[in-house]
Structure formats: C-alpha cells, structure tokens
Write a structure and sequence with these properties.
Largest interface: A-B, 24 and 36 residues
Number of helices of chain B: 17
Oligomer: heterodimer
CATH class of the largest domain in chain B: Alpha Beta
Order of helices and strands of chain A: HHHHEHHEHHHHHHEEH
Distance between the termini of chain B: 42 Å
Number of helices of chain A: 13
CATH topology of the largest domain in chain B: Rossmann fold
Number of domains of chain A: 1
Strand content of chain A: under 5%
Strand order of the largest sheet of chain B: 6-7-8-3-9-10
CATH superfamily of the largest domain in chain B: P-loop containing nucleotide triphosphate hydrolases
Helix content of chain B: 25-40%
C-alpha cells in the first residue's frame, strides 16, 4: 500500500468515526446556545442506540429504528428539561444522573428482553443503514487522486452520514436566519431580555432541548444500526464527552463544530491505523498512546490553546424572574 | 398636553394590591398618569415602586385592582400584553443581549415572521425614522457590549419605541450614567413627551424628580402617600413624605484637620482577570483626619483600585504604603492587622454571607480574635454578646442577633458591615458605595459615622458612584476615568466640573 492509499483509507474511516460526534455536538450546540448545559449527551446517545437496535431488530426497518432512537432521545432530553428548566435543578447533576440511568437501564432492559448479557440480537442487514454508492463512483475510481477520494471517502457511506453533513448548514441557517434561532441565541445569553420581550423562556428552552434530543437520536442510531449491527453495552464509549469538547473547541458555532468533529474523527482513525505498526526511528509504540491522543488533545485544547472560549453567558443558570 | 382643563389619563391604576407571602408590597394603590406628561414615582428601596411597575408591565399580576390604559380596562397577564397595550419599559439592569447587534436586540420578540430577513430591513428603516424624529442616533450594526452605557440605554428606549410604546416606564435610569449622559437622556425624554408620549420615571433621586418631572407621586411602605405637581413641591417635602419624618438632607461637617499621610499609592496598575488594564498608573495620598472621595462612573477602575488596596486583587505593578510600610500584595488579614478596615462595595458578595446569622456576620474576618475563643472553637456567647452590643449601638433592626442576615433590609445589612469594620477602631477605612440600596434614614446614620471617623483622626478613602455622596462627604475629590486619575478637586467642586471630568472631557 502506498501512502496515498493509506491516507484515503484513514480519511474514509475518519469520516465514519466523526459522524456520531457531529450529530452529538450539533445536538449540544442547540441546548447550550439556549443556556442549558448538556453533559447528558452521552446518555441520550446510549438510550437512542438501544432503542434503534431493538426496533430495527424487531421490524427490520432502519427508518423505524431511527424514529425510535429519536423519540427516546427526545424523551431523555425532556426529562433533563423538566429537572433543569421547570424545577430549576442543577444542569450538570441532572445530565450526569441521566448518563448513569441510560448506561444502566439499557443493559438491564437488554438482558431482561433478550438475555444476551445486555446486548441486543444482531440486526438483520435490511434493518441497517447500509452504504450508498454515489453515481459514477466506479467510473472515476481510476482517475488519479480525485477518483479514489470520491469513490472511497465521499461515496460509499450510509445515508446518515450525508444527513449529518446536511445538518451543519441547516443548523447554521436555523440559528442565524430564523426567528427561533435569534430567540434561542438570546435566551442563552440573557433570558431576561427574552422574558421582557414577551417570549416564554421556559417554552423556548424546551423547544431547544427537543432539537437536541432529535439530533442526538441520530447519533445513537448511527452507532447501533449503521456503524454496527447491534447494541452493545456502553457502546458510546465517551463519545458524548468528546462531542462536548468539540463543541467548546468550536466555540459553539456550527461550521467550526464540523471541523472539530472531523479532527477528532481523524485522530481516532489514525490511532486505529497505527495499531501494531512501528513508527520510524522509535519502533513499535503501544497503541494506547495513539488511542489516548484525542483525549490528550482535548485536555490541551481546553486548557486554553484555543483562545478564550466564551460560553453562552446564561449557560448553567436556571432562570428566575428578579425580585 | 391635555386640552383645556380636562386631563386625559394615559394610565389609571385603581386599587392595586399585591402580596408576596407575608410582605405586602403594594397596598390599595391608586394612581392616574396624564397623557403627554412626565410622571415621577419616588420612594425608598422596598417602598414598592418596582413591584408596581412590574405589575404594569406584566411581570407580576396584581392580587386585586384594575389597570386602565387610555380609559379602557386592560388585563396585563404578561409582558406581551403590556407591549400590545402600548407600554414599554426600560429596566434598571438593561435587558439587552450583549453580543447581539443593536438591530438584533431591537428585533428580538418583534421579528415580523419566522424568517429574519424581512424584519431586519423593516427595523433598519424604523431606526432611521426614530433617529430623525427623536434625535436618537445609534449604529444598527454595532455590537451592544462595545457601546457606552448611555448608548445601550438608548437601545432599550428604541426597543420600546419600535414596539409602538406610547407609555414609557424608566426604572432608575440614571444610576449608571455620567451627569452629561443623564442630561442627554432628559433631553430625549422631553422630546418624547412633547411628541405626545407619556413617561413614568421611577427614581430615588430627589433632584432628578425636581429637574424633569411634571407630576410626582411618593410611595412609602407599599402605599401611595401623596401626589404633587412638581412645581408646587420642594425637595424637603418630598423627602419627608418618603421617610415619614423630617430628614437632614445635607451632611453637617466641620473643616477637616488633615495630619500625617497614612496611606500612599504610587504608580499603581491593576489588570482584571482578562488582562485588561483597569487601574492605570495611579498615585495619591490619604492623610489622617481627612476623607478622600473617588468619583467616577461605574466601571472606570474604582472598584479594582479599592480591591487592590484592600488586598483582594493583586496589583500588576506599583506600590501601596500604609502607615509607612510597603504592603502591595499583602493579603486582607495582614492588612487588617495593620489597622486597615474595608467596607466593600458589594455587601452581598463580599461583605456578608447572607445565609449566616447576624452574629456570625458581625465577626466575619475577625473570628480569630482572642475575645471570640481560643484554639479551634468559637466562644458563641462572646460572639453573640458582641453582636448584640453593635445592634444596640447602630440601631440595627430587627434587633435579633440570631436572625439570618438575608432577612434584614438593605440598610440594616449595610449597618452590620459598617458596625463590624468601624467598631474595630481602625486607623484607615476603605469604603465602597457606603449607601447603595440603603434607605434615607440609614444613609444619614452611615454618613454621620464616616464623618465621626474622620474627626477621630482616621484616614478615609471613599468610592461611590453617587456623585452627591462623594461631594457631600469628601474633603478632597479625585476623579477616575478609564483607569486613570484625571484630576483632583476640593470637596466643594461643582457637579458640572466633576461631571465633565467623569466623562473624560475635562481634566
């Protein structure tokens, strides 16, 4: 394999690994721009992965699986909303609690229903989102550089991948070009301004959380019935937290979020590729070093190498009318 | 103006009553505001002015009573309903989204459709019109946090006008403004009135009432106690109506007898947490037996200066000398041992722990004193006895040392802090915003204590955004603008002179 083929294969894998991050980070974007911290992205991902796998297994229809994933994720999001908006609870505590509930409940229900140690049964092929070959992919494969890039990186992904990238401009458009987006950004900065303009802070924040649940549902579904063919306990493996890091790294803006997620996906793919390979001059490096790279990078980035990341000003603070 | 003698009412409040638990915030309030007039509502903190206006703006619902707008009864269930009835409000703390542009802020809540594009162009057009009608110019594409405070306030007014407000409520609008900015605001308000708008001005500043209003209503303890034509009343009468007894508005003090220099600041520079220079190469002295006041609009470095001297904030460079010792970088405990007392600007965040009992706050920072116990244990009896003595001496009400501090009024909370710091008999006193949120009766008392400190030969450094307060207490006034000391004036300098310096226009 020459270097170009290696690059193409790493890039392809990077795209696949960044998709759940991208959905999740965009999900977090809507909630956090509305002033609700969402540490519970991980839990939403897990819960929706489980729901999608169950339904896809039973119906052999990936779209019904996706619907189940989205509905469950929105439900988890609304619980977070009930705790942190309606009851003005601590958003971090609520999020962490939901993560534990999701991690535990998926395994318990999985074991009770299927008896496979918390796994769901294999989802049949027709119940999964499979790769789509874009028109002309085979024809251009022979063209130098662009050919393999199109055939192996851009083409050959499942439909959710393309939806993920469509969500980026769509999110931008919603945030910056619609009334809902203007109000959502305002409520994350100064809910008082929204309230005195005669807009309900509570209802606005709930709507933001519904969008969050919707997007996180895609992420979970992708994990269990696009990337894999079953739900495995704790299969999100911290991706919800990495997505949060990407969100901060991207300073809560949609397009930078995409690049941040691609970067983390690339590092992940690179780590996978380096397994068992030796590095020139150093020799074989334990794979754990590479696997740790995304997390080390996260620490470095969050330690201030991205300049001042100014979070939405009202983030984490439950809204109460003054006096 | 009304035609002939008939007054056309813009707003009528009939029998408005509101309780918050045990607190009776508004008691059977009746008020008529004439169309095309500027109507002042004055009262002490907690008199119920803000509650009343919040009811009018739909933030709260009255338990009883009726609101009529232009003679028609209206139900104002939320702010949206208030806006629909033609009522606009400019809040004391601006309700602006700081990282939005002026345009976005004006548009918020009145976007004119699901998509922003159409609203954007109509706001732009309307802002142009308002600019030419009322002389309120502002760049629609400027980001609000980069605008001066006076301009931000203009954005708040424009927001209300864009929504078609005919009645404009302003809640303590001059608290954050320089005197020239306040003058400009008053000019705008007069233009608005002359064009037929009705203005309700809530304030606790008597001079403002006299300067701008046509009619004034006084509130005390939830009741509307009087309404007067401004031309037919006096400052003294209004003060008496507010407090319920005669008050001394002027501070009575003799001449200062300054002694040796007790506190010296040389080339002090302080940066805030973002690295912005807040205090820029500042030098001055404070002598025994004098009060040095620092005047300036909030946010010009006075707070940081005070915190640096008090040892709360580390100076970036420069020297601070106290009683002949260099103390820059000392922590507050060591400074206290050297005889420096500090009454911080914000009693809620720095001066007190609101959840503590009164007696615990009364020794806060002095808890290591031998009198309050040896070793790790506190002698609670001694602590409470000390607290009770201060309560008696400072007339803190209610006189209950076991009550949670949060349950005291602002004035009494401030007295707790003042008593704690002054009763230690320090050599030097730093005092920030001594009477912020304090009622007139307590202001009189606290001012008297500060003068007593001076007459006892202490050095007093006073920081206040209330120019009147600085002028009435200080023997010398230093003016800060943008982190620099722009000049020094004697204590009797005119408000105009100081106002121009505070705005950075004159030195």
């Amino acid at each position: 394999m020459d270097y170009f083929d290696i690059l193409i294969s790493i890039l392809g894998s990077a795209i696949r690994l960044s998709i759940p991050l991208l959905f999740t980070a965009l999900a977090g974007l809507f909630s956090e721009r509305a002033g609700i911290f969402d540490i519970g992205l991980e839990g939403k991902m897990l819960a929706s992965a489980f729901a999608a796998a169950c339904v896809a297994h039973l119906t052999a229809d990936p779209w019904l699986g996706l619907l189940a994933g989205i509905l469950v994720s929105i439900a988890v999001s609304l619980i977070h909303g009930f705790a942190s908006i309606t009851n003005r609870g601590n958003q971090i505590v609520s999020g962490v609690a939901l993560n534990f509930v999701a991690a535990g409940l998926t395994v318990v229900l999985g074991q009770a229903w299927f008896g496979q140690g918390g796994r769901t049964p294999q989802v049949p092929t027709e119940g999964r989102f499979s790769s789509i070959i874009l028109p002309g992919a085979d024809a251009v494969r022979g063209v130098p550089f662009i050919g393999p890039l199109y055939a192996n990186v851009i083409s050959g992904n499942n439909i959710l991948t393309y939806i993920a990238f469509l969500m980026v401009p769509l999110s931008w458009w919603v945030l910056y070009r619609t009334r809902f987006g203007l109000r959502l950004r305002a409520v994350g900065e100064n809910p008082g301004a929204v309230d005195t303009a005669g807009i309900s802070v509570t209802w606005l924040r709930y709507r933001a959380l519904i969008v969050t649940g919707f997007l996180a549902g895609f992420a979970g579904t992708y994990l269990s019935i696009a990337q894999s063919a079953a739900f495995i306990s704790n299969m999100s493996a911290g991706k919800g937290y990495i997505a949060l890091a990407a969100l901060i790294f991207a300073k809560w803006k949609p397009v930078p979020v995409m690049f941040a997620c691609l970067l983390f996906g690339f590092l992940d793919a690179f780590a996978n590729f380096m397994q068992g390979k030796s590095v020139p001059l150093i020799g074989e490096v334990p794979v754990q070093i590479f696997q740790a790279l995304p997390y080390i990078l996260t620490c470095i980035l969050l330690a201030g190498f991205i300049g001042i990341a100014r979070p939405p000003k009202a983030g984490g603070v439950p809204y109460t009318k003054e006096r | 103006m009304g035609l002939g003698s008939a007054i056309e009412p813009a707003i009528e409040l009939v029998g408005i009553d509101k309780k918050f638990g045990a607190v009776h915030a508004n008691k059977n309030i009746n008020l008529t505001v004439a169309k095309g007039s500027i109507h002042g509502i004055i009262g002490e903190n907690g008199a119920g002015k803000s509650t009343l206006m919040s009811i009018l703006y739909g933030f709260y619902q009255a338990d009883q009573g009726e609101i009529r707008v232009s003679g028609r009864p209206v139900a104002i269930r939320d702010s949206q309903a208030a806006i629909a009835a033609g009522i606009g409000m400019v809040h004391q703390h601006f309700m602006l989204v700081e990282n939005f542009t002026v345009l976005e802020n004006v548009m918020l809540g009145a976007e004119g459709g699901q998509l922003l594009a159409k609203g954007t162009s109509s706001v732009r057009k309307e802002l142009k019109r308002l600019e030419s009608d009322y002389g309120m110019e502002v760049d629609p594409d400027a980001v609000v946090e980069e605008l001066p405070v006076g301009t931000q306030q203009r954005v708040e007014i424009l927001k209300a006008l864009y929504r078609g407000a005919e009645i404009l409520i302003l809640d303590e609008p001059t608290g954050v403004l320089t005197p020239p900015e306040a003058d400009h605001l008053f000019k705008v308000l007069r233009v608005l009135r002359d064009q037929g708008k009705t203005i309700i001005l809530i304030t606790h500043k008597l001079r403002e009432i006299m300067a701008i209003t046509d009619t004034v209503s006084v509130m005390r303890r939830g009741e509307m106690v009087a309404t007067r034509k401004t031309a037919e009343t006096t400052v003294e009468e209004l003060a008496e109506l507010m407090v319920g007894r005669r008050v001394l508005l002027r501070v009575e003090k003799g001449d200062a007898a300054p002694g040796e220099v007790l506190m010296s600041v040389r080339h002090l520079t302080v940066k805030d947490s973002r690295g912005v220079v807040m205090v820029d190469d500042v030098s001055f002295d404070v002598r025994a037996g004098e009060i040095v006041g620092i005047a300036g609009v909030a946010g010009n470095g006075q707070s940081e200066l005070l915190e640096a001297i008090a040892g709360i904030r580390k100076p970036t460079s420069g020297e601070i000398w106290i009683d002949g010792k260099p103390v820059a970088g000392f922590d507050p405990r060591r400074l206290r041992d050297l005889g420096l007392a500090h009454i911080p600007e914000d009693r809620h965040h720095m001066g007190l722990v609101l959840k503590f009992e009164e007696n615990e706050n009364a020794i806060l920072g002095y808890h290591r004193d031998r009198r309050f116990g040896r070793g790790p244990m506190l002698d609670l009896d001694a602590v409470r006895k000390e607290a009770e003595e201060k309560i008696a001496k400072y007339d803190i009400r209610p006189p209950n040392a076991r009550l949670r501090t949060a349950n005291f009024s602002g004035g009494n909370q401030q007295k707790i802090v003042v008593a704690r710091e002054i009763e230690r008999d320090p050599k030097m006193l730093l005092i920030g915003q001594p009477t912020r949120g304090v009622d007139i009766g307590a202001i009189e008392f606290i001012h008297k204590r500060i003068i007593d400190m001076r007459d006892a030969g202490k050095a007093v450094l006073l920081v206040s955004v209330e120019l009147d307060e600085v002028r009435s207490l200080s023997d010398r006034i230093l003016v800060m603008f943008a982190g620099k000391m722009v000049g020094e004036k004697p204590g009797d300098a005119s408000e105009q002179t100081l106002g121009l310096m505070m705005a950075g226009i004159a030195a």
